[in-house]
Design a protein that fits this description.
The strands form 2 sheets. This protein has a 7-stranded antiparallel β-sheet with strand order 3-4-5-9-8-7-6, sandwiched between helices. It has a 3-stranded antiparallel β-sheet with strand order 1-2-10. The protein has helices at residues 60-70, 156-169; strands spanning 4-9, 14-19, 23-24, 35-39, 46-53, 80-87, 100-108, 117-128, 133-144, 171-172. The model has no long low-confidence stretch (mean pLDDT 91). It has 179 residues and is mainly β. It has one domain: 3-Layer(aba) Sandwich (Protein Transport Mog1p, Chain A). The chain contains 2 helices and 10 strands, in the order E-E-E-E-E-H-E-E-E-E-H-E. A hairpin with a 4-residue loop joins strand 1 and strand 2 (14-19). It comes from Leucogyrophana mollusca. This is Mog1p/PsbP-like protein.
Amino acid sequence: MSSIAQRELFGGAITADLPTRLIDVAQLREVPDTQEVFIYPDSLASFIVEVLERVDQSDDYEAAKFHFGALEDAPNPEHQTVFDIKVLVNDRGDDTPSPVILHGKQLMHKFNRQALDEVEILLGLFRVQTKNVDLVVSANIPIVANEGGAVEESQVPGIKSDFYSLVRSLHIVDYGLFA
């Protein structure tokens, strides 16, 4: 089980619980202002928190599927499988929207490689209606990585647990972030 601590994201406008061993990619390279990216030190598994313009789909499940499909550089429906989709109710008593959680798998070309990698994905979609924003949290878990970095099968449950800790704890503190 990972040691978890609350981290400030986007300059403190959002807080969320993340494993302390995750590496903030912004410490290694430039990350767009609309993203927070964290990686595990022993694999290519990652968490991405991204502020996006709200998509046209009015159905939250369809919006989650849209964002899931957009994770692949050149979306190919044959390379995508959705296993489960559900709402995770925010019962903390704050006004952060309840996320739609999608669990799926994609076959994708990573880092411009020719071979397809198999990536298990957990996606949390927080729809901020009043600001016309979709806040997307994704866990990318490479199950098959043709050139290294795949997650060992024994690590997958811990990464999934870390993802659920992140989305359950995610709190939008300052809606001015979405101005």
